[in-house]
Amino acid sequence: MRFKIAALVAVTLVLQRVLGMPGMPAWFGHLILPMIWIVAASLVRKERHWPYEALLLGLAWDLLFGPVVGPGGIAWTAACLSLYGLASVVADRSPRAWAAFGAVGAVVVILVQRLAVMPLGLASFLTFGQLAWSALLTGLWCGFVGTVLALDLGKHWRAYQVRKLR
Amino acid sequence: MSRTHVLRTLLIWTLLELLAALQVPAVGGGPVLFSWLRTLVEPVAMVAHGAVALAVDLGLGARGLQHAIVENRQMRIDLETLRARQILLQADLAALREIGDFAGSNAEFDAGALFGRCTYRDLIAGTMEVRTARSFILAHDTPVVSAKGLVGRVLRSEGRRHWLQLLTHAAAAVAVQTEDSLVHGLALGTGSNALTIAYVPRQAALERGALLVTSGGDGIYPPGIPAARVTRIRESDGPFLEVTAISTADLHATRMVLILPKWAPAASGGLP
């Protein structure tokens, strides 16, 4: 199960890389695909420990997309801890909650990452529009995944296969 | 979130930030982390440097204070020395005035008289050392007086230094008489401040407290100089009275003396 999740995380990171390739729409850069993993961890996981997975995810993010390794780990663990806290006070687990958690996670990741690189002299310009677009698109992405999980398409697919065999 | 979680989070975030700072080059070269470390260390180094400078300044200040104290002490010693010299000079000046008045009142002391300053005396041995302003070769037996009376005679002279035999010397003898010239005698030194007046006839009219002046009969001292004052008179079995006197010249405190070269036996050729 862990290997499967790790492989899927790697796939999302590769997809994130693909979204930034030349020729892709510019607004793809606002979308943060790996956010779904910490949103899922905060909404689905029953026992919560310190988010080492988020740390690894952030370091991987830094390796692939950042100028230096380190700030991503801070930002992603901060986002994961924030979502843990939010999940402990919000009982809703609907796709709408997935979308909201994704938006919040995106905002936290972007802000904390900017704060972390600020002492290094690497902080880039950030507008409220960029932040809003990232929150919106990431929220939509997480909401979409949440919707798919809520519809339980796998269950319907297996039922369809059973009926077809009869 | 528990306290352990918070501490762990802060620790990991700090390590990650330091890791990132190690990768970013600073403007002056080297990682940003080193510039952060320099920023942290420099104030400490500045404080340490300031503390060392303060300690050095304090040391220099203490040394300067010590020098100032030593100089102050030396200046106090110099000041006390100057005060002592001033007192001595005032005493010399007073003695000089006194002896000047004494010399001026005596017409027989002409301009040939020399002022001398007592530099050493041994009243037990009956000697005194006198210094003059210029070098003189004084004749043996040159008489020496002070403002209060006869002092003695010159024994030896060498440049500015002259050695005297006081009239209290055990071997000294001065021909004396009363002021009215009725009683004559010979004042003999005893080695102390007292003098023995010899050869005073039993019938002599001599009273205690009488002043004895030089008679000039010894051929050394000029006549009329106060020499002694009678302190005790006793009759004896012999033909003479036992008379004791004390020198009028305050030999303990005499600072300035008047040397009379003209009255030296060699210069005068005997009695004037």
Keywords:
heterodimer, A: 166 residues, mainly alpha, 7 helices, B: 272 residues, alpha+beta, Thrombin, subunit H, 2 domains, six-stranded antiparallel β-barrel, six-stranded antiparallel beta barrel, 12 strands, rod-shaped, disordered C terminus
Characterize the structure shown.
Chain A is mostly helical and 166 residues long. Chain A has one domain. In chain A, 73% of the residues lie in helices and 0% in strands. Chain A has 7 helices and no strands. Chain A has helices spanning 2-19, 35-44, 52-65, 71-89, 95-117, 128-151, 153-165. In chain A, helix 2 (35-44) crosses helix 5 and helix 3 crosses helix 4 (71-89). The model of chain A has no long low-confidence stretch (mean pLDDT 89). In chain B, strand 6 (173-178) and strand 7 form a beta hairpin. Helices cover 36% and strands 28% of the residues of chain B. Chain B is an alpha+beta fold and 272 residues long. Chain B folds into 2 domains: 1-105; 114-268, Thrombin, subunit H, CATH 2.40.10.350. Chain B has helices at 3-23, 32-105, 265-268, and strands at residues 114-122, 127-132, 143-146, 149-158, 161-166, 173-178, 184-189, 194-198, 211-214, 226-234, 242-247, 256-259. Chains A and B meet through helix 4 of A and helix 1 of B.
